[in-house]
Amino acid sequence: MNDRQPSLAAHEPSLHTIEMVCDRLAEMGVAVGPDTARDLVCAVLTAEAPRVDARLREVLDNALETIRVAAQAAMGVLATTSPAAQRPPEPDAPTEPARREKAPSPPPPAQP
To answer: Is the pLDDT of residue 2 over 50?
Structure first.
């Protein structure tokens, strides 16, 4: 029978983790095999899972709240600016260069 929490039941520690536990315990003079090391790691994960889960949920809630506030602020900014559809249309670009007409000359001064 498996006494692990359902969320951790499918999780198995990696071979690297098992080897690390065996090596660390061997350094302390405790010789354990891979099955014992695996059981030890699984027991620690099961015991710590609720605390880690609570902390992770708190961090995620804070991140989501930050995103929500930023999205609301962005929506407020967008709502206060005029949409592009309401701007006056830009004049069409001329197909040929504009011709410059000569300004009329001023009339000659009157003679006395």
So the answer is: no
